[in-house]
Write a structure and sequence with these properties.
CATH architecture of the largest domain: 3-Layer(aba) Sandwich
Largest sheet: 11 strands, mixed
Number of helices: 10
Distance between the termini: 24 Å
Number of domains: 2
CATH class of the largest domain: Alpha Beta
CATH topology of the largest domain: Aminopeptidase
Strand content: 25-35%
Radius of gyration: 21 Å
Order of helices and strands: EHHEEEEEEHEHEHEHHEEEHHEEEHE
Shape: elongated
């Protein structure tokens, strides 16, 4: 029989211990570091927990609360019970029992839980999916991403491969860049003109996060020889995954296929150091509508589907 699990609400005195645990966990991610989680602290009510067994942390859960619902986590792409090596299947069931009891006592009626997709696991860590099933959780959302597995990659289509040659012929420079301000101006203008949206992160926020995680949050651009940025992509980088986001291209960049060329450059750039290159999701409206053009574009680089799931678990 497993020892009892203590569910302890997070407070700042646990920050260093929390961050050390996340850095070493099987499904850890720098998104779960308190330095990342707490940048939008004014937007969310933190409701995170640590799980102790015999005074030793075996798991943590980044989460926030809203009304009578707990989310893991509104401000993050996904949120999960971050698992140490000792958190096997039986202990995970015990953790869920203890967590549901604690949440019920706190007046929480349901938990919205977004598992980390398996490509981000350093080692397999899907005990939480089994526990969700055992506790009757409902799958309420499924988004589709597209990723390249470097162990057995598919070939990009000839059209995508040709983009690199076209950009090179135009003298486009593909490289990492520190021109965050210039790129954010381009990104903001393009998002507003085409979609009526603004970047989730302001320039102040993304620069702050880049300074906190300089090796994990990186900007790559395609620049014309004389200087203007034609396209850019922000990479969120873990030990095993390069995740692309905030990709954007100017009208001149479209003419010379600058964004396609930049993606081809990045796919090759990370080939020797990562297991996966993840383009992010192509679905909309809670996963129920596929942006077919966006999905096809990613697939033409040789990417195939990865599910990003969301579950809802009732709390008795």
């Amino acid at each position: 029989m497993s020892p009892p699990i203590a569910v302890i609400p997070y407070d700042p005195s646990f920050a260093a211990e929390w961050n050390r645990f996340v850095a070493a966990a099987r499904n850890g991610h720098f998104l779960f570091d308190r330095g990342f989680m707490e940048y939008p602290s004014d937007r969310f009510i933190d409701f995170s927990f640590l799980f102790f067994e015999k005074e030793r942390v075996i798991g943590v859960l980044p989460s926030n609360s809203r009304h009578d619902t707990m989310y893991s986590h509104h401000g993050l792409t996904f949120g999960v019970i971050v698992s140490g090596d000792r958190l096997g299947a039986e202990r995970m069931l015990t953790v869920f029992d203890a967590m549901r009891c604690h949440l019920a006592q706190a007046g929480v009626r349901s938990l919205v839980y977004k598992p980390v997709p398996h490509i981000y696991h350093r080692q397999p860590a899907e005990e939480d999916l089994y526990a969700l099933f055992r506790h009757g959780a409902e799958l309420v959302r499924r988004d589709i991403s597209a990723s390249i597995g470097y162990a057995c990659p598919l070939q990009a289509t000839p059209t995508r491969q040709a983009s690199i040659r076209k950009a090179q012929a135009a003298g486009i420079v593909l490289s990492e860049s520190d021109r965050w301000g210039d790129y954010w101006e381009l990104l903001t203008a393009v998002l507003w003109a085409r979609h009526g949206l603004r970047p989730v992160h302001s320039i102040v926020e993304i620069l702050m996060l880049h300074r906190r995680f300089p090796e994990a949050i990186r900007l790559f651009t395609a620049q014309a020889p004389a200087g203007p940025i034609l396209a850019g992509v922000v990479i969120f980088e873990t030990a095993i995954v390069a995740h692309a986001q905030y990709g954007s291209v100017s009208e001149e960049g479209r003419r010379v296929r600058a964004l396609d060329a930049l993606y081809m450059y990045l796919i090759d750039y990370y080939r020797s150091s990562k297991r996966w290159f993840d383009f992010g999701i192509s679905s909309e409206q809670e996963g129920r509508v596929l942006n077919s053009g966006l999905a096809r574009q990613k697939e033409e680089f040789g990417a195939t589907g990865i599910a990003y799931d969301t579950y809802r678990l009732s709390v008795p």
